[in-house]
Amino acid sequence: MESVVGDLTDPASLNKAIQGCRALIHAGAYYRLWSPDPDRFYSVNVTGTHNIMLAALDAGVERVVYTSSIAALGTATDGKFTDEKTPIPASDRQVIHYKRSKYLAELEVTALIRDRGLPAVIVNPTAPLGPRDVKPTPTGRMIRDAVAGKIPAYVNTGLNVVHVDDVAIGHRLAFESGKIGERYILGSENLSLKYILEQIASLTGQPKPRIRLAPNLVLPIAYIAEFWAKITNGEEPMITVDGVRLARKCMYFSSEKASRELGYQPRPAKDALGDAVKWFRATMMN
Questions:
Q1: Tell me: the pLDDT tens digits for 241-250?
Q2: What are the chain's domains?
Q3: How far apart are the C-alpha atoms of 251 and 35, rounded to whole Å?
Q4: For residues 44 and 29, what is the distance between their CA atoms, to the nearest angstrom?
Q5: pTM
């Protein structure tokens, strides 16, 4: 296996890296819920995706799997789970930078599929959990902070949790069996945030969170936290404005299409939670 260093914002480096490749799995993204420089979401997620897809076309790549996100999808409001056909409302596309950037990036890919024959399949992972979340991702930071006993309260929201290894398997299945131009949600179980935090507390011996907060009450705190992070050049704050906005809806999704068409069979969410907690506990002790 050969490793080649490239930069999504540098087309020349991508053209060089992809020469001789027959396939591309594009999983690179700027995955955060806050940034001191919001333009970074668009230069990496939108322009960067466009750059690497053009490089794949120029190199004659035979198969592409593009890692999109559930952020590019809407949220069902009729009591059903969101599927691949649920449109994202304009309000979400305009306000939340990460969601907007992933929505626009997916538009870039679908346009190239339609107009230039890009042989791409799209996958939309939900909230991946598990070991080796070294950055960590926004979801991983929540697990890390809960393991450390830093989350005494919760908001009434929920998300679809999936083991990161199942997301990887889903990519392989999409590569092997996915239909060009189709998107597939890669998730597992829909869980309330309260339930997730209670399960982490049970695994770690930490007190269960008992305080339920309304998002509107948390929002001013998020603005203050972001302002402080920006003026101090600090890391992404524990509470972000976009995170609070997302928490106003339960982000529940269905992977039925991936199961039906790809043979995707994710493990229970408790395994993802358990592996994530085990890894973060071991990491924090080192």
A1: 878 888 888 8
A2: 11-277 (3.40.50.720)
A3: 22
A4: 6
A5: 0.92
